[in-house]
Amino acid sequence: MKPKSIAVVGAAETTQMGKIPDVSVIGLHADAALNAMADCGLKPSDIDGVACAGISPVELAHYMGIVPTYADGTSVGGCSFMLHVRHAAAAINEGLCNTVLITHGESGRSRVGAGGFARSASSLMGQFEMPYGPMGPPTMFTIPVLRYLKARGYTVEDLAQVAVIQREWAALNPRASYKDPITVEDVLKSDMIAWPFTKLMCCLVTDGGGALILTSAERAKDFPQKPVYVLGTGESVETPMVSQMEDFTSSRAFRVSGKKAFTEAGISHADVDHLMIYDAFAHLPLYGLEDLGFCKPGEAAGFVRDRNTAIGGKLPLNTNGGGLSYMHSGMYGMYALQESVRQMRGIAPAQVPNAKISIAHGVGGMFAASGTIVFSNEAP
Amino acid sequence: MPPRMLPEPTPETRHFWEGCKAGELRLQRCTDCDGGSYFPPRPFCPKCGSRKVESYKASGQGVLWSYVINMRPRPDMGTEPYAIAVVKLAEGPQMMTNIVDCPQTPEALQLDMPVKVTFSKQSDDISLPFFQPAGA
User: Fold this and answer.
1) Strand, helix or coil at B47?
2) Which residues of chain B neighbour A126 with C-beta distances below 8 Å?
3) Which CATH number is associated with domain A6-113+204-376?
4) What are the sequence ranges of the domains in chain A?
5) Would strands A357-364 and A70-72 be described as parallel, antiparallel, or unpaired?
6) Could you identify which of A28, A59, A317, B36 might form a hypothetical disulfide with A209, taking C-beta atoms 3.0 to 4.6 angstroms apart as the criterion?
C-alpha cells in the first residue's frame, strides 16, 4: 500500500466491557459502531464500506442501515480486523469506497446471541486432531510450547513473567478486568489448565466489542480527532491445524506478515515506540518479539525479564494489559488495534510519552493466521 | 460417558483410515519431486502440486515432539488428565495423537523420547493411531 494514504478517523470500544449479559453479539457490533461514528461525527449514511468477522458483513450493513459499495467478510480468527484494515486501505486507494467501518463484537462470556464453535468431523481438524481430546484454545494453542521452551532454553517462569508485567500495565487501565498485582509464583500456583499452562497464563473470557472508521489521509484532516495514519500492513496464513505448523518454535504467518508490514512502512525496529502483540496465551508475546525481529531467537524471555517491555522500558508492549488482563472476547485483535490508536492519539490510560509509531500484531486461530498494522500519528 | 469424538473419513482420506483399520500407518509421497512424505492426506503433493502421489506404509516410528496435559478432560475422554501430543514421525511429518501405555505426567512424557504406533479400534470403521513408548 501507499504509506500514509489512509487514516483511522473514528475508533471506539463498546460502552461496557467485561460482563455484558444484556447485549447480544450483533448488539455489541452496533454499540461499538455507533460509538465510533460519534467519535468522528459520521452517520450510517456516510459509511460506504463495511467489514467484520464473527457475523457476516451483510448482517452488519443491514442492521446499521448502511448501503455499502464494499463489503469484507474476511474471517481468519482474532487477527481478522488487522486484515480488514489492510483490505480497507487497498479498497479506499482503489476507489471502491471512501469510508470503511470495521466492527467486532463478541459475547464470549455471556454467550448472548452467540454462535457455536463446532467443527465438522469430516474436516481435517475433525479427522486428525479432535479425536485426541483437544478442548478449545487452551489445549491447542499451547501444544507447540514445550518444544519451544526446550529449543530456546526458556522456562515456565519465563511464561509467567509475561503475565506479571502485563498485569502491571493493566493496573494503569481503569477498564481492565484484572488490576491487582501478581508475582511469578502467583502465576505458577494458579490452577493448572493444560500443563505447563496455568490459568494466569491464559487469556480472559469476556464480552465486548470495538469499531474503527477509516478514510483517505486527505479527508482525515477534516475530522474532529487527530488522524492516525496507516504506514504499513501485512498479512499471512499458515495452517488450520496447530499440529501441522512447520516449525513449533516460530510462526511462519508472523514472520511473513511482520516482514511485509515493516517493508511497506519503510521503518526499522528502532523506529517503533509502542507495540501490541496479541496475547491469547503467555507464550505469544515471546514468539511475536522473535518472529517480528525485535529479539533474536532465544533472547525474548530475557528481554521481557529485563523489563524492556514494562512501564518505562524501551519497547512498551501490550499497554492496555492485553488479553491476559485487559479483556479477551474471543477475537482480541480489535482491542490491540484500539490501544494502538489511543497511543497514537495520545489518550491511552497508560500513555507512552511522545510515541510516534505503533505496531499492532495479531494472530488468528492457533497460529493459523496473522495480520500486522503499522500506525503513525505524523502527517504525510 | 458420551461416545468418543471420531473422524468422518472423506474420499481423500479414506485410504489413511483403511490403513489404520488394517494396522498400517499410511503416509503419502510425491513420485514427481523429492518433496518427501506429507500428512494429512490429500491427493496431490503440497510441495510441487503434482497429482502423481502414492500412499505407502510408514515405519510407525517417531519421537514425542510436544504436548500439553489437559487437566479438564473433555467429557468423551473420561475423567483423568491426558496428554494431547504431537509426534514427529521418522519420515518427517508431524501428527497429533495420544500417548498410551505411559503415565500421563511430565516426568514420564519426555520430549524426544522414541515412540511407536499402536492402533485402537473405536468402531467398525475407525481405529485411531496412538503412540506408545518404543520400549513398551
Assistant:
1) coil
2) 5, 7-8
3) 3.40.47.10
4) 6-113+204-376
5) unpaired
6) A28
Kindly report the pTM of this predicted structure: 0.95
Measured between beta carbons, the chain B residues lying within 8 angstroms of A133 are 70, 73-74, 76-77, 82, 84, 98
Interface membership of A194 toward B (CB under 8 Å):
yes
Distance from CA of A110 to the nearest CA of B (A): 21
Give the C-alpha separation, A336 to A234, whole Å.
15
Helix or strand holding residue B28 (H, E): strand B26-30
- 3-state SS of chain B: helix, strand, coil percent to 5? 10, 35, 55
Dig out the grid coordinates for A44 from the structure: 450510517
Amino acid at B110: Q
Question: pLDDT (tens digit, 9 = 90+) per residue, B75-111?
Answer: 999 999 999 999 999 999 999 999 999 999 999 999 9
Closest by CA to A30, choosing from A119, A105, A140, is: A105
**Nearest beta carbon to residue B84 from set A120, A132, A244:** A132
Which residue's C-alpha cell is 533474536? A296
ipTM of the complex as predicted: 0.92
Q: Which of A130, A135, A145 sits opposite B72 (nearest CB)?
A: A135
Reading the block at residue A118, the C-alpha cell is 463446532
* pLDDT tens track for A289-348: 999 999 999 999 999 999 999 999 999 999 999 999 999 999 999 999 999 999 999 999
